[in-house]
Design a protein that fits this description.
Layout: H1 2-22, E1 27-30, E2 35-37, E3 42-48, E4 60-63, E5 66-67, E6 73-77, E7 80-85, E8 97-102, E9 108-117, E10 124-131, E11 136-141, E12 153-160, E13 167-168, E14 171-172, E15 179-182, E16 192-200, E17 203-206, E18 210-212, E19 218-219, E20 224-230, E21 238-243, E22 254-263, E23 270-276, E24 280-283, E25 291-301, E26 319-322, H2 327-330, H3 339-352, H4 360-384
Parallel strand pairs: 2-9, 10-19
Antiparallel strand pairs: 1-3, 3-7, 4-5, 4-8, 6-7, 8-9, 10-11, 11-15, 12-13, 12-16, 14-15, 16-17, 16-18, 20-21, 21-24, 22-23, 22-25, 25-26
């Protein structure tokens, strides 16, 4: 007898929301807005007010606007029609699928949202960087296939490694959905522990914890003031000059630079890795009379003595310049395999073997050699030209 009383009490508690709701509504659906695992079964009931004068057998159900077959229905009482859905698929949208109860004329009596999905998996690929040591931005990827099919929240957590209090990042970006920036109360020379927590109504998961010092993950703004120009009348060269990133001028670090360039009508970039820490360089071996686009980027190595390499900045905005036209083309010379071209190739092969790549020494030697060869070429043209 005591068991029966407990069971009745349980039924009263389960049905209480419907009973209370019916005092102010013509109908309610129970359960209301359930959250279910993919593949689950669901039995929902549509309770109608007795004063409505409608029998439950005249009602029907729709899911996302599509009528459900009557074979899924069961009349539990004159005021209660149930429907059973087996092996539920994932929700089509995070706002849920609409399960609706209608009267015989098609009017909506009550509705419920079904949230069918999966608990989140462990977030992965947590990566962080600091722009000019002024912030700390981290990005990550959802675990597994990355789709839970229901609303899932991600929280970037962090704390100072030994004595810090756990905090949560507040500046989540909308451009990149899984990213957040910490912009205040940052400490240098102190390691941080950082991780991501994912949660929804079906469960939660936590990423691996990474430990880093902000000085070890610094990236800069791109180099500024990039200028690309001709080198006199040397038709196969362009000079490139730039300034160090302004935000790091007062920092103790050793910058590394890279240059990349491409032809105007090409998307294939050629990268120069051996620029070093100087803020100027020559591009040699270019096509005469051709427009080139040039970009520069920076890597702040060893900020305040950090032993780790920095992170490359974005590339600077493209700067365009053209090489001079070849005098051989202007004078109508067809000697495309001339001695001059062969000697140029030999010289470039020699320059590429030098460890200092874009050094001033190699450029000065080249300038002297190149002018000498051009003067020699002009002299040969003058000697061999027909006289009037």
């Amino acid at each position: 007898m005591e068991l029966v009383s407990d069971l009745c009490l349980l039924l009263v508690i389960l049905h209480a929301p419907a009973v209370l709701a019916l005092s102010t509504h013509v109908a309610v659906i129970y359960p209301q807005d359930p959250v279910l695992h993919m593949g689950s079964n669901l039995t929902a009931s549509c309770w109608i007010h007795s004063d409505l004068g409608v029998h439950a057998s005249s009602l029907f159900w729709t899911l996302n606007g599509q009528p459900l077959p009557g074979s899924l229905y069961r009349v539990l009482s004159p005021t209660n029609l149930s429907v059973t859905l087996a092996g539920l698929n994932a929700s089509r949208q995070t706002s849920g699928d609409n399960l609706v109860c209608h009267n015989h004329k098609g009017h909506i009596l009550a509705g419920s949202c079904l949230y069918v999905g999966m608990p989140p998996e462990k977030p992965v690929n947590l990566t962080c960087w600091s722009r000019n040591t002024k912030d700390l931005t981290c990005s990550w990827a959802p675990g597994g296939r990355g789709e839970t099919h229901i609303s899932t929240q991600y929280a970037l957590k962090y704390k100072l490694r030994w004595y810090g209090k756990e905090k949560e990042c507040e500046d989540y970006t909308h451009v990149q959905p899984y990213s957040c920036s910490i912009t205040r109360d940052l400490h240098l020379f102190t390691p941080y522990e950082i991780w991501v927590e994912a949660s929804n109504q079906l469960g939660r998961a936590t990423s691996d914890v990474i430990t880093l010092d902000i000085l070890d993950v610094v990236t800069t703004d791109p180099p500024s003031g990039v200028i690309v120009g001709r080198v006199g009348q040397l038709e196969d060269q362009l000079s490139v000059r730039w300034e160090a990133p302004p935000a790091l001028k007062d920092f103790l670090f050793q910058a590394k630079y890279q240059i990349r360039y491409r032809l105007e009508d090409s998307q294939d970039w050629k990268v120069m890795d051996d620029v070093g820490n100087q803020t100027s360089c020559r591009l040699a071996g270019l096509r005469p009379g051709t427009v080139y686009f040039v970009q520069v980027r920076c890597n702040p190595v060893g900020i305040y003595g950090s032993r780790k390499a920095g992170i490359w900045s974005e590339w600077s905005h493209p700067t365009a310049a053209s090489t001079p036209h070849s005098e051989r083309l202007m004078t109508g010379s067809c000697d495309s395999k001339s001695t001059l071209r062969r000697e140029l190739k030999q010289f470039f092969n020699w320059v590429r073997k030098l460890p200092y790549g874009c050094s001033n020494m190699s450029m000065k030697l080249y300038d002297q050699w190149r002018v000498l060869m051009q003067d020699s070429h002009k002299a040969r043209n003058q000697v061999g030209s027909p006289r009037g």
